[in-house]
Every structure is written in structure tokens, then in C-alpha cells.
């Protein structure tokens, strides 16, 4: 399974295209201006990927700015964690204060919960429920190829912020230790911001949640 990373919008958010056998999903489309939208579309067309789903790890503004565009462009349904609908809906109210007057809201077509799987070609992404940064935050784990699309839970030697509505520090640390740190140590973590890391590295060196 292939993972292509784009970094979009002023928040420097990581958008991922995950694909296999010509079929793919877009996770957290953060593209907002025409240049970013074109960059995403050009890659998908060049690689001849049929986008079947749009997935959100959570509903904060930087991860959903391109939801409506991606849904329309690829005629694909939107999936989000079952407990994060209010987070997504609230973006419309505060987007102008962040300078996004032209934000177009999006409505999920389906909801995901812990234990669900998302088919990508002949592969699967397992859904993990990992609240703390956002109340309905989910992550997507590919067991076969050993990677995790983690959203804003765990970063390279850092963690997601917990001072936003619905955030909780203790809950976030529990999500990391009880869900992420139970995965294989060599699991590659693709975060919502910044560079990839591994579970083993964060267990040893993360100042917030290291266990070794």
C-alpha cells in the first residue's frame, strides 16, 4: 500500500493519499486554495487513482478545509469518527476568525468506530478510537504494511494539544499508551503535522509519554 503526503494550508497540515491497486482514499484533506487543490488532483490523476472515500481523523479546521472540495471533485463520500460530528460542525462558526471566509462546510455520509475497517484495494485500514486531542478522534492502522495514519495524537517527540474544546491531556496520554504503544514497535506513524516517526522512537524519547 502506498502513502503520499501533502502539506497544506497555513497550519502546515499533512494530507494523505493512501492507495493500492489503483484504488485509494484521501485522509484529512487540508487543501484550501486553488494551487493546493490542483496539486492534489494532479497527483491523483497522474497515478490513475480512483478515490473511493474521504476520511477524517477528526474535525478540526486544518484537517477538513478541503473536505467539500474533495467530495465534489472525486464524487466520494465522507467518513468521520462517530463522536466527532460536533467538532466538524463547529468549524463553520469559527472559520472566518481564522481568515477562512470562503470555507465550505461538509456533512459526513458515514461514521466510523473502533474496530471498523476501511477497504483500500485488497488492503485494509483498521479504525482505532483515540480521543484526547478531539473527543471523536480516530486513527487508521495498516497492520500488513506496518503504518499508522495518526492525526493529531502523537507527533515526533511531541503530542497533540489538549486545550481545545473536547480535549483532555490524561485521555490523550491513555490513548497513546493503550492504543498506539500496543502496536508493533516498528510501526511507522504518519502524523497530522510534521515528520513521520516510529512507535519505538516515541516510547523511548517522547518527553510527554515515553515508557522506557
From TrEMBL:
Residues 12-193 form the Metallo-beta-lactamase domain. One of its GO terms (molecular function) is hydrolase activity. Pfam families: Lactamase_B (PF00753). It comes from the Bacteria. The keyword Zinc applies. Its cofactor is Zn(2+). Keywords: Hydrolase, Metal-binding, Zinc. PANTHER family: HYDROXYACYLGLUTATHIONE HYDROLASE GLOC (PTHR46233). This is MBL fold hydrolase. It comes from Roseivirga thermotolerans.
Amino acid at each position: 500500500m502506498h502513502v503520499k503526503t501533502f502539506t497544506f494550508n497555513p497550519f502546515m497540515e499533512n494530507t494523505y493519499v493512501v492507495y493500492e491497486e489503483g484504488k485509494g482514499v484521501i485522509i484529512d484533506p487540508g487543501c484550501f486554495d486553488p494551487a493546493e487543490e490542483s496539486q492534489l488532483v494532479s497527483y491523483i490523476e497522474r497515478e490513475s487513482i480512483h478515490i473511493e472515500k474521504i476520511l477524517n481523523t477528526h474535525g478540526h479546521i486544518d484537517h477538513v478545509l478541503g473536505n467539500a472540495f474533495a467530495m465534489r471533485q472525486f464524487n466520494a463520500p465522507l467518513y468521520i469518527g462517530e463522536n466527532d460530528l460536533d467538532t466538524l460542525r463547529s468549524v463553520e462558526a469559527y472559520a472566518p476568525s481564522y481568515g477562512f471566509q470562503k470555507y465550505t462546510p461538509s456533512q459526513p455520509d458515514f461514521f466510523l468506530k473502533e474496530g471498523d475497517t476501511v477497504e483500500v484495494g485488497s488492503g485494509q485500514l483498521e479504525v482505532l478510537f483515540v480521543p484526547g486531542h478531539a473527543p471523536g478522534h480516530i486513527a487508521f492502522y495498516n497492520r500488513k504494511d506496518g503504518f499508522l495514519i495518526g492525526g493529531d495524537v502523537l507527533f515526533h517527540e511531541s503530542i497533540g494539544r489538549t486545550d481545545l474544546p473536547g480535549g483532555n491531556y490524561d485521555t490523550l496520554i491513555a490513548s497513546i499508551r493503550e492504543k498506539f504503544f500496543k502496536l508493533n514497535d516498528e510501526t511507522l506513524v504518519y502524523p497530522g503535522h510534521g515528520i513521520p516517526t516510529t512507535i519505538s522512537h516515541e516510547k523511548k524519547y517522547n518527553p510527554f509519554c515515553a515508557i522506557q
